[in-house]
Amino acid sequence: MIQHSPHQQAWLAHWLTLEGKAEDTMAQTMAGAKVDMNPHQIEAAMFALASPLSSGVILADEVGLGKTIEASLVLAQKWAERRRKLLLIVPATLRKQWSQELEEKFSLPSVILEAKSYNEAKKTGHANPFDVELTKGQPAVCICSYEFAARKELDIARVPWDLVVLDEAHKLRNIYKNDGAKTAKKLESALSGCKKVLLSATPLQNSLLELYGLVSVIDPHFFGDLAAFKARYSKHNLDEMELVLLRTRLSKVCNRTLRRQVQEEGGISFTRRYSMTEDFRPTELEDQLYRQVSEYLQQDELLAIKSGARHLVTLVIRKILASSSYAIQGTLETMINRLEQKLPLIEALQDYENLDDYQDEEGYNDEDLIDPEALKAEIDQLKDFKSMAGSISQNAKAQALLRVLERAFERTTELGGARKAVIFTESVRTQTWLADMLANEGYRGQIVMLNGSNNDPESKAIYKEWLERHQGSSRISGSKTADMKAALVEKFRDDATLMISTEAGAEGINLQFCSLLINYDLPWNPQRVEQRIGRVHRYGQKHDVVVVNFINKGNRADERVFELLSQKFQLFEGVFGASDEVLGSIESGVDIERRIHDIYQRCRSDEQIEVEFNALQEELKERLDIKNSDTRRSLLENFDADVISRLNLRRSKTSRQLNAYQQRLLLLARMALSQQDDGRYQEGEDAFIWQGKAYNLNWQTAETQEGYFFRPHDGMGAMLIERARQQPLADAELTFSYQPEQGQWVDVKNLVGQQGQLKVVKVIVDASSHRREQLLLAAIDQDGNSIHPETIERMLQLPLCCEPSTVTPIDDQRLEDKLSEQLTAFKTLVEQDNELYYGEAVEKLERWAEDKRIALDIRIKQLDQEIKEARKASRHLSSLQEKMAAKKQLKQLERERDNVMLSYHQEKKKIEQEEDRLLEEIEERLATETRLKTLFTIRWQLAASAQEVTA
Question: Model pTM?
Fold first, then answer.
């Protein structure tokens, strides 16, 4: 029977949880992640975590390379370091998707804060709902939208955040402008002093000043002020030396990898997407219903909807109207009932599941109640609409779906894909109606529905069967929402042909086994369309993807929307679809939706529609035309060969580190669980069985074989580590047995038959900005010869010949001397790293001060030139009045120049004082405190077998 002592388990447990540089400890985080990370993603995370003094970075990888994974890895690393004040600010439409990704891939708990949950927390007595640990009683990543964060800026400012991640951060790039950018300025103020990670593939779109804006959000002391940056870098012909300097400076704060580089390194292979369209023309009755409801929504004095809710309500009703007559019929009925009962109109729109996103964007107040007396005529009108909708027996778009479905399947099969399609609709009622219609058209038993609640009997039955099938495995997370989605996706993958999904249902799911997507209802928001297509056209997709859209030939506005999304945003064709270059050029897809909705509201003829859409396209043209590509390449992109070489090295190094870490995690399980020879513990390759349950180091194997993912930060792995760390350890004598399978360890084999003493000490070097930990291992043999720490580690992995025995406390100065040497070496290493961090911070501040001083010099030169030109111009003036006015203007310029010159040295002194103050702050953050903790001291013997144990 193999035996190991609690001392050996404690050494392993502490080694597995050491804190320190990300370069050394990232394996802990990766060993617990349910995602196969590519080298560029790990490289990006390392870049973000490189310096504890950094105020933050921009991760600017191209679209499709997984910036979400990169940022999640950074968040998970901070979590592992027990830094739990983590804030994630994202577009409203991505909140749920982020929450699910963090939970499913990294086991990070999160809380989405929006108006409802915020107000509930306030009502229960919590002063600041953003302080999640106090509000919820346990830590979690706090997630909110940009708009909500800006409205609650004071609450956010009161939390000392360890890290703030801002997704789609190009929303902030116009912060340098005086007009607009209110949200950006509020967030900059609220998050001042916090470390930030900004995610954007387009940090530079139209102007270098946008890049300045993003960097200033991260660190106001990176560049000088706006005037200094403009004076130095915003020139038409930037000097080559200045360009090189700017590139060098940006390389410290911005990391960018391109798709072609990753593809060449071998990390990701991208497939194409192809577009199919199917025309349809509504029936006369459908067209009549559309026009009458549309005219109703266009009325100026619409009493049914208060002005504060006008945009939101009319937009959602239009979406439901375009979806199906069945959907609008149900909505009208609910609206009528709600209005008659004096209830909020917003409650009538729950058929549209993404309502929360719009309410958050609009700042909608759901307390707008209806005055039934003023609405009687309109209620009658709504009843007429409902009656008309009920009389429609066939929908032209549904017939178009039946026509195109088989052709689309044929095209998908030609491209090598499976006979599976996901159909997206924006209405829950349309979803139910489509499922019934398709069942009657030959697809009965082949349909899965996915939405925000899935309360239908079929979904409940699928969920129940899934729970029974996976009972006792780690596939069951305990979250009903997540597990319901997992059950339905698995059913679609294994048994069904069609999945009909709403937007809310599709958030955060992976459908790469399907390569046909049908937009039954087409959103107006290009970012939402790309998000949909991203469910199937993503990393891991092996086949080219087919995207089907319907074109309403009876509605010119609908046709123009499709043209806009297809031609201008390039959503449906090519290898990458809508690139971040294009999507990043718009501040928000909701802004585009709002503009399109305004056209629908204003236009009463096809001619008006043409004029308005032409104007919209012209308005978008400047933003959608990709500019400054040469500047972006020269400033942000590195040579392909350099990147590919670096990624190859990262892949090799990461593989070695991760394998070593996981094998030691498995060794801890063997030490802790194999003590009893009762068959409850059985070991396999990268896996073990304990009490009938299978645990595996590979998360994919664990899921496919109905086992448990064995990882360090939760479940069995976390329990074993914590138990081993907490055991009290008295001085003891351990007799190790050198087994034949360790024959390759020649250094250990040479110690067979010897004995000596061994001590393990944990050293903790604390600074306010970071912590470094190391295990010091000192051992000597009976002759006082020192043993190398690597040999000690190998010896501590050996089984024991017999039970440990207690001994009198060991106190040997020779061990202390060896430990002292190792401690000095470790502190020297820490000091060298701190010197590097300090040097980078000093260089950054020197560049900042230089920017400020150069700006002063440039301003004086500009004024001198203006004075010179003004004097020259005044000589050619003829009238006395003109000469007097010119003289007055000249005097003003001379006074301004004299004032700048007088304040020149004073300003330089202020810059130097600020530089000194910031350096003092850096020195304080690097000040270290060293603590030592003895884990255990033992006497040791090493025998070849139990018979060779010395007395």
Answer: 0.78
